[in-house]
């Protein structure tokens, strides 16, 4: 029996603020096969980032399960989850989150500091990742010496450098103009199609979603209809 890379069952998430409980996800069932590129869309406040953070192990569910490669990550301790995340998930955010004092090369090396690895090996892997995103010649540049699109490419290289199981992107083109956004989305598509990366991407932009293999719609914490693009 083939098993999905990510299996989500009856997933709920409630946040408590003082006496108030905010019920964000109401029971999500979703399978993401290995090699998929999924766009997650829905109105503001529908729970997209919450769902993405549960899949990426940045947060834990109220009830239900999240399995990745057959392992129940919702049952991990905080420490186990942090270690698992560092090994298995590459994160890409809207505002890049690069460290301004470090060069592109050193930013990309950062996730490897957690692995037991010599500095020459770290440098080599970071260079491979920068080459993959088309920035082999920008390794010495600091973030403020790069364009927004280049900064996001560096962030994608940083997310890829550990060879993660899953690339998790939250509005990766939300701060970019159309042309630059399309270049970054084409890069994500290439990583998916030619390098087999499994990608889940939250976006508000229907044009961005067209780069994915399918779109999953969230509405008020529940999955709506699914559309397959290609
Ligand atoms: N840590 C938290 N504590 C309390 N409520 C939260 C917390 N995080 C999110 N929420 C609430 O959960 C709901 C869903 O938030 P989420 O960020 O998942 O939505 P979203 O679909 O990604 O929205 P957007 O498109 O605006 O980014 C919102 O009503 C938000 O206020």
Automatic annotation (TrEMBL):
Q: Which domain of life is it from?
A: Bacteria
Question: Per its record, what are the GO molecular function terms?
Answer: ATP binding
Entries under CDD domains matching the protein: ABC_MJ0796_LolCDE_FtsE
What name appears for this protein in its UniProt entry? ABC transporter ATP-binding protein
Keywords (alphabetical) are:
ATP-binding, Nucleotide-binding, Transport
InterPro entries assigned: AAA+_ATPase, ABC_transporter-like_ATP-bd, ABC_transpr_LolD-like, MacB-like_ATP-bd, P-loop_NTPase
Instruction: Keyword check for NAD, yes or no.
Output: no
Q: Which SUPFAM superfamilies does the record match to this protein?
A: P-loop containing nucleoside triphosphate hydrolases
Where does the ABC transporter domain start and stop, copy by copy?
Answer: 6-230
Which Pfam families does its entry note?
ABC_tran
């Amino acid at each position: 029996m083939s098993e999905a890379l990510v299996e989500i069952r009856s997933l709920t998430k409630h946040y408590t603020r003082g006496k108030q409980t905010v019920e964000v996800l109401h029971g999500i069932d979703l399978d993401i096969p290995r090699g998929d590129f999924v766009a997650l869309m829905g109105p503001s406040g529908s729970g997209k980032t919450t769902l993405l953070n549960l899949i990426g192990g940045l947060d834990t569910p109220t009830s239900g399960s999240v399995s990745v490669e057959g392992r129940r990550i919702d049952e991990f301790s905080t420490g186990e989850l942090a270690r698992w995340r560092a090994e298995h998930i590459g994160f890409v955010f809207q505002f890049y989150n690069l460290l301004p004092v470090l060069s592109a090369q050193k930013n990309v090396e950062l996730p490897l500091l957690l692995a037991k690895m010599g500095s020459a090996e770290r440098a080599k892997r970071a260079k491979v990742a920068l080459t993959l995103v088309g920035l082999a010649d920008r390794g010495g540049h600091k973030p403020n010496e790069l364009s927004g699109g280049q900064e996001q490419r560096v962030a994608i290289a940083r997310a890829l450098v550990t060879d993660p199981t899953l690339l998790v992107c939250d509005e990766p083109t939300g701060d970019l103009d159309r042309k630059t956004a399309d270049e970054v989305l084409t890069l994500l598509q290439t990583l998916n199609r030619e390098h087999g990366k499994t990608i889940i991407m939250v976006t508000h932009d229907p044009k961005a979603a067209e780069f994915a293999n399918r779109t999953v719609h969230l509405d008020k914490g529940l999955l709506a209809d699914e559309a397959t693009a290609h």
